[in-house]
Write a structure and sequence with these properties.
- This protein has 237 residues and is α+β, with helices and mostly antiparallel strands.
- Helix content is 23%, strand content 23%.
- It folds into 2 domains: 1-123, no CATH class; 129-237, Formyl transferase, N-terminal domain (Rossmann fold, 3-Layer(aba) Sandwich), CATH 3.40.50.170.
- The chain contains 5 helices and 12 strands.
- Strands 1-5-6-8-9 form a 5-stranded mixed β-sheet.
- The longest helix has 24 residues, at 190-213.
- It is globular and about 50 Å long.
- The relative contact order is 0.14.
- Belongs to the GART family.
- Residues 84-209 form the Formyl transferase N-terminal domain.
């Protein structure tokens, strides 16, 4: 999936007065982005195109934009364009479309391709991804799904867990924003470990997106992102 979120005022991020991207088929991130007292978003038109199969060269990017928590616009973009997918958009067209909706933040979940450099440059420090291991361990190209958990168990690692990180030009190398620790049991299977990590993914991503909504992410002098506590702005983690 490919999720996008943005705001309507360029000077300050405000949960009530922003455009957001929510998962089209889950409630996990919507718990965070609907945390304000504004009315719940209404339903919207269905996607323009059916999802592509996993073997297709182009991906159907699911885009759902919520306007001030009142109206939902839902559509799909095929990216990248190719001879076999003439309706697909280029990286520049993808950036232009997101700019059209005044998008500020992009939230990735289950997006396995390398994010185009044009998108990274246009949304520097604004693209988040979640990975099912404690990065920098067990990350990079080829580490996804059960492959991650099989590698964790096979290595003898005692701990695993999800990582929320900013996206840069490489796989899983952006600055880490939040992590949760999950104990690896001695008799774990990849499926069992994946289920426990996934449970933590749902919690930590919601917490991070909530911090985004509330403008509680700050940057240390050395470029490391930190989250301000909701109860004490002087407390960083």
């Amino acid at each position: 999936m490919f999720f996008v979120t943005g705001k309507s005022k360029p000077d300050k991020l405000n949960c009530r007065d922003r455009r957001r991207l929510l998962p089209p088929d889950t409630k996990t991130l919507s718990r965070a982005t609907s945390a304000s007292s504004s009315p719940a978003p209404r339903s919207a038109a269905p996607p323009r195109r059916p999802p592509l199969g996993s073997s297709a060269r182009s991906l159907a990017l699911q885009v759902v934009v919520v306007l001030n928590m009142q109206k939902i616009i839902k559509f799909q973009l095929l990216y990248p364009g190719s001879k076999s997918s003439p309706d697909g958009v280029s990286a520049a067209e993808l950036v232009a479309t997101l700019r059209k909706f005044e998008v500020d933040f992009l939230l990735l979940a289950g997006y396995l391709k390398l994010v185009p450099i044009e998108l990274v440059q246009a949304f520097r420090r604004s693209i988040l991804n979640i990975h099912p291991s404690l990065l920098p361990a067990f990350g990079g190209k080829g580490f996804y799904g059960l492959k991650v958990h099989e590698a964790v168990i096979g290595s003898g690692a005692r701990y695993s867990g999800p990582t929320v990180h900013f996206v840069d030009e490489q796989y899983d190398t952006g600055h880490i924003l939040a992590q949760r620790v999950v104990l690896v049991l001695t008799d774990d299977t990849a499926e069992q470990l994946a289920a426990r990590v996934l449970s933590q993914e749902h919690q930590v991503y919601v917490e991070v997106v909530t911090a985004l909504c509330e403008d509680r992410i700050v940057w240390r002098d050395d470029g490391v992102p930190l989250i301000c506590s909701r109860d004490n702005s002087d407390k960083l983690y």
